[in-house]
Amino acid sequence: MKINKLLIIGFGSILLTSVVSAKGKGPKKSFEELDADKDGKISEVEFTAGAKNEAKAKTSFKKKDKDADGFLNKGELAKGKCKKPKKPKKDKPEEE
Question: How many angstroms from the chain centroid is the CA of residue 96?
Fold first, then answer.
């Protein structure tokens, strides 16, 4: 009986993980996971490894690398997306 419950829970976990990953909403890799050589910084090669779209990953790396040293530190990686906030639209004056 316990084995059946464990199998059901395990299968459910695998199914849930695959559904979430398929939608692209899976958990992001941590700094430690990306830092393959454990040197305390992430190179472009480490950052783009396993990326679905290498060109987008390279562009993202360059945007995040604020000091342009060719590596990401924890602070640069944690900054998130590099999008500028949208300006609010100005209302047009009503014509009479």
Answer: 50
Is residue 47 a contact partner of residue 61, using CB atoms and an 8 Å limit?
yes
The alpha carbon of 65 is separated from its chain's Cα centroid by a whole number of angstroms, namely 15
User: What is residue 91's DSSP assignment?
Assistant: P
pLDDT in tens, 14-46: 544 444 444 444 457 899 999 999 999 999 999
Using a CB cutoff of 8 Å and minimum separation of 24, what contacts does 52-56 make?
A: none
pTM comes to 0.55
Domains of the chain: 33-80 (1.10.238)
Q: What is the DSSP letter of 66?
A: T
End-to-end CA distance of the chain: give it in Å, rounded.
78
Nearest one of 47, 51, 96 to 76, comparing CA atoms: 47
For the chain, counts of helices (H) and of strands (E): 5, 2
